[in-house]
Amino acid sequence: MSISPSWYLALSVVLFSIGALGVLVRRNVLIMFMCVELMLNAANLAFVTFARTLHDIGGQVLVFFVLVVAAAEVVVGLGIVVAIFRRRASADADDLHLMKG
Amino acid sequence: MTALVLDLVVQATRPTIPDVGVFAVAAAIILAGAIGVVVARNPVHSALMLVMTLFGVAVLFVLQQASFLAAVQVIVYAGAIVVLFLFVIMFLGVDREEDIAKERLRGQRPLAAALVLLATTGMLLLGEVSRWTTGQPHVAGSDSGAPNVNLLGKSLYTTYLFPFEATSALLIIAVVGAVVLARRPPVARNTTGSLTDDATGDTTGEAVGGSGFEVDA
User: Fold this and answer.
1) Does B39 map to a domain?
2) Domain assignment of residue A77, given as a range
3) What is the DSSP string of A39-99?
4) Is B149 a domain residue?
5) Between chains, do A91 and B171 touch, taking CB under 8 Å as contact?
6) How many domains does chain B have?
7) Interface probe, candidates B64, B97, B115, chain A, greatest A C-beta count within 10 A
């Protein structure tokens, strides 16, 4: 109960931005997934901060759900990566241009 | 009693030195790990940097009295999700350095940096100028008065019971989806032509070996 919530939120914003930058810049699908995880963690940090600030347990419950959805997302996403890799032996997002026209 | 409450309020408004130190160290770990995830050439290094960031976030959860979430963060994220990442990296054999110096799409990086900078500035300004108001305190229940796990469990099994059950359906769907996606297509098994082949991996291996032999000959 000591450090101002603004610091936590600022850290959360910076963490989210680094994750967004990674998704935009990196072309390796696995690293893009990891950057999505960074963004989810930034959101979790903000949720916990608001839960503390507003004295409401709801923020922490929401973090719980975000964790579950993140786990499901990673499982399905990595399944898709494995399926794509089996077809074209590459984990590069730029190689996936089948619908390029 | 009033003096005690006032003392607590005064204590709550002033950061103590250890808390500031823990926050600073955790923030440094988080940011270093996050930057490491983005700039690491090797996907394995990215995954390990991700573990660093997740531990830092868990420390900040502890600092904000969310002890259960800190434990779940370490167990689920660092223990399960990152291991899954590492497993897939090793399984696919992409654990080698890649060239990230050159830009594949022209103008992608400056554009991405500009967009992210704009969004960051906007979000920081939003946090600075806006006031957080809430009409009703404790919508889902207070965050004090009982241990963190008790409060979280009670809220999860009363107020949020339906979403909680829905997540179980989501997890089942995810498991079934992952199995369907990752299994070898059954059509390929019928077109191998050989009845003794029970896996397509063997036949493709033979096909690659056969073509190599032909090239040699």
Assistant:
1) yes
2) 27-90
3) HHHHHHHHHHHHHHHTTBTHHHHHHHHHHHHHHHHHHHHHHHHHHHHHHHS--BGGG--TT
4) yes
5) no
6) 1
7) B64
